[in-house]
Amino acid sequence: MKKRGKGIACMFYPIGFTSYPNPGSAFVKVNQDGTAVVFTGATDMGQGSTTVLAQIAAEELGIRYEHITMVTGDTEKTPFDLGSVASRVTYIVGNAVKRAAHEAKRILLEVAAEKLGVSPDGLCAGDGRIYIKGLPERFLEISEVARIAQMGKGRPPIGSGSFNPITTFLDPETGHGKPYGAYVFATQIAEVEVDTETGVVEVLRIAAAHDCGKAINPMLVEGQVEGGISMGVGYGLFEEMVLDNGVVKNPQFTDYILPTSLDMPEIRVGIIERPEPTGPFGAKGIGEPSLLPTAPAIINAIYDAVGVRIRELPATPEKILKALRETDQGKA
Amino acid sequence: MNGSAIGVSRPRHDAVLQVTGRALYGDDYERPGMLYAKALRSRHPHARILKVDTSRALKLAGVKAVITAEDVPKNRYGFTHLDQPVLADDKVRYMGDVVAVVAATSWDAATEALDQIEVDYLPLPAVFDPVEAMKPDAPKVHGDSNIVSHIKIRSGDVTEGWRISSEIVEDVMRTQVVEHCHIEPHAALAELTDDGTYVIWSTVQRPFLIASDLSRILQYPMNKIRVITPAIGGGFGGKNEITIEPYVCLLAAKTKRPVKMVLSREEEFCGTTVRHPYIVKYRSGVTKDGKIVARQVEIISDSGAYVSWGESTLSKASIHAAGPYFIPHVRIDGYLVYTNNSIGGAMRGFGVPQVGFAYECHMDNIAAVIGMDPLEFRYKNLLTDNSSLPTGQVLEFVTLRETVRKAVELVGWKKEVEWE
Amino acid sequence: MLPRTLYIRPSDLTKALEALEEHGPGARVIAGGTDLIPSMRARTQLPSCLVDIQGLGLDTITRTDGFVRIGAACTFSELARSGIIREMFPVLREAASAIGAVQTRNLATIGGNLSSAVPSCDSAPALYVLKARLTLISLRQQRAIPVEEFFQGPRRTVLAPAEILAWIDVPVPPDRSGSAFLKIGRRKALTLAIVNAAASVCLAKDGSTVEDATISLGAVAPTPLRARKAEALLKGCTWSEELVKEAAWVASGETSPISDIRASADYRRELCKVLVRRALTHAWKRALGGDQR
Amino acid sequence: MKRAIILVVNGTEHSVEVQPSDLLVDVLRDRLRLTGTKKGCGTGECGACTVLLDGKPVNSCLLLAIRCEGRQITTIEGLGTPDSLHVLQKAFIDNGAVQCGFCAPGMLLSAKALLDENPAPSEMDIRQALAGNICRCTGYVKIVKAVSSAARTMSGAEGGGR
Questions:
Q1: Among A44, A256, A305, D107, which lies 20 to 30 A Cα-Cα from D15?
Q2: Are D27 and D52 found together in one domain?
Q3: Do D73 and D7 share a domain, yes or no?
Q4: Which residues of B touch D81 (CB under 8 A)?
Q5: pLDDT tens digit string along B172-217?
Q6: Are A255 and C261 inside 8 Å of each other by CB?
């Protein structure tokens, strides 16, 4: 017989390293044609951070996204970054890029202010232009301003920026302190179907509601959530590296089971946006948190479906069937 | 504003290169005259190394160099504890420990040479169960105790918490060893340029950490170490620390030729870090109306043979072990324990998936005991704006309730929920 | 980085047999290679010479009087796609589709799957219940044996050195019969069976008496097996859910599974009961359906 | 014992000397420098090395190069170029189907073979066709969506696909 159930799991997760300073930094230069190059040590291993950082730079500079070039992942060519870890790049390096871009923009605004006869604070940058706040028809092209700044005024529009969230170490006896700068939150609900004769679980659907402050790039945020869920499905149901007296018994994908396209449920992602005041344009992070609630939501859904509680991951069909039999015997 | 770059679903900046097969990953790089490196790993989970003889291997056609611990200027690394050798010297402490690395003119020659390296071991008693390892008479992996660290978090007074509870619920949960399984294996290529700079192409998440670790291991200035990250085929924490980079650098220096090393899938499983397996004990007290008033947690984390990221992982796990709930009385104890198992490292979630699984299943168990709907039970106890955590940190903005409502909106719940 | 070996691509079957003979016991036949190549990579097989049997005409599916002849070098994709197989032996199509993933099925051959003789081999249970016969050919002789006489143990068959499994003859099932294959692995694709099972049912003219039934199970013994006691229990009886359940219990008792990294022996025995019952029921429904075998 | 063979890759004939034990994936990557074909496991269980052999997806880590003589091999480099993307490649980009990108070449070739055989696949058809390609990053959601969208584009605009 197949039985269905639903399970819920909530989580909170911090952005950035625990307690240790974990700065990110960036350089920005605006070329005299109005294009720009961003230099940062942050590395993209697939999560999409370089794209997000380019969007942040584009927004801050008011330059089109297509006109931003990213130089990343070269310790000789870029300023320091702690690394693509701890879900920190959007929040920390994003802030560093924003600050560096802001510094470069300040030079552009000052040069434009002189031409437009207003104070730099009365100017905005956007759409490749610098214009008077509230009077977008009075503008200068950034390319022109950049050329004047560099070749006319002798002030190349460059900037540098760094960011480090304010954290403290924990008291060794009480564990008290402020180890993180920002937190994200999430809830996932899983719906499963359990075959009571074989213990085989099919995850039918997962709803994932994640707060990330502000989704700089919603498609990439969804991608992180969907990918995290697949890792969570693996963690909950399939994956286990078996060690026997220190020897790995399954050092191949033959017996280390990852989810395939057929093992993944329908996923519905909901993004919650409540801007984080200390984040770049309100953004926080999403990388790690996405996988967190999946396994417990599935395990709780199994419990809801068939009344058995799996206390050791992964919840293999064999463990579920064994628990079912024990429950049956308990009832008899 | 029109044309804003924020909130826009831009495709990845390098997607065109990726989908056309033009993106270059670690193993896609090559340099003229490049050699290929393979590692010889331990045959025992715990043994003293008596002798390493590489002379026969060096005589093989195509073999250009073999390095052992003697070749490493500073043979220890680690983030919080400098306990891990680049190449095993006094002992091997798990099956993944590397004893020697060969550079040869082909993968085949390097692989064949491994069989010709003779290592004399004196097998030592080993320990694989972290609970056993905590006992005073257990075989010691390092020094005189296997307990590396004890993380404590105290908030309120749990004794008072138990007193005011109407129900106390206990659970023990275990999590398994998990591998990152980034589909791209570790790959690194090093070249020592004419001006004395090491250029290293390596698929790592933290190029600057690799550079600073290399600087210390090689005793070489950082301005002469350049780490470049090519396209990276996934990381998830598995490419977080130094692994094969010292080998290719040392071999490049020894042979004066570029050296490349790529791990096999088997080595990814046997010789790189994993997600720590945890044993987690929960004890929670609740009042009749479903408020959690006390929670005690004990975590035992199997660090494996070295600390690597074990202490910081456990710290993060402990900080979050009470879950996203407001609980006045909390006591958390985390223990990190050496064993002769694979090394626990950084992996997506960094300790929190383990406790997250445990606390969320524990929450359902409590709900069952007090006869409350699991969603309503959570909703009642969730952190809200300006809640404080067991660390004393106050969270100004908390969107947990919004996420619960959103999830229910997306797939519904078992019953109609009335939101407070 | 495979161990070095010789490679021979003969132009016909006789030349292939000659090559095997000439190169002695170190020579191995290669068809799809999906099992052999990883074994060579792991150094568990070190053939001195590979004799390629692709392109020798052993990859066809032909219908003859009373049976269908399947070339041993026929891939699982070809089997799954074949109209003849789909129409006549859905059980074999189910088994073929359950193997690996698309990439594996495009290379792996039915002859290779059988010759590798791993206990979890997916094609064997289907061929058992179809009562297939295998033709083995060497330079000296050609012999045909029932499929269940082929296996001797894990990775061991009756194939003599320099003998090739050439083709498989599958008799056309009688009227009022049906068969089905089921597999439980650890995920839905790209997985080895924890247990696989096939069953066939042939009903008497009355439509309710079991005239004949065959049950086969894989991954629960050193070789794929026939659950003969369970079959005997069914024969001549009137179909009922109770009867099938009992047969499934009996079948499970006929197995001798081991505990390994994929599952425990106990779990495998439990799965046998479920899979046999389900496979029999499915086969019975097909038998009732008349032309849908 | 090396042997000279002709490999037809992406429509071009390449003459290479191979050992019988040389795997197609290594010949493609190391000899022909077609590094778009990736190596993830070496045992045919991740699909990163998928190429098309006479139009059918196979794991090139399980295939001896010497056995591919006279057959049509298609690698990711033959699907489309940055200047002239295949509809599937465009769909992968637009739908965010690529994260780390390591599985993408194999995934795209499996998808191409599917659409060549079945121009209007259901979601289940797509998931079946891609089950031999493991992706650790995306959860497959956007990959399935991209293939589905490419199928619609190709059937909508006849000749839009290549």
A1: D107
A2: yes
A3: yes
A4: 20
A5: 999 999 999 999 999 999 999 999 999 999 999 999 999 999 999 9
A6: yes
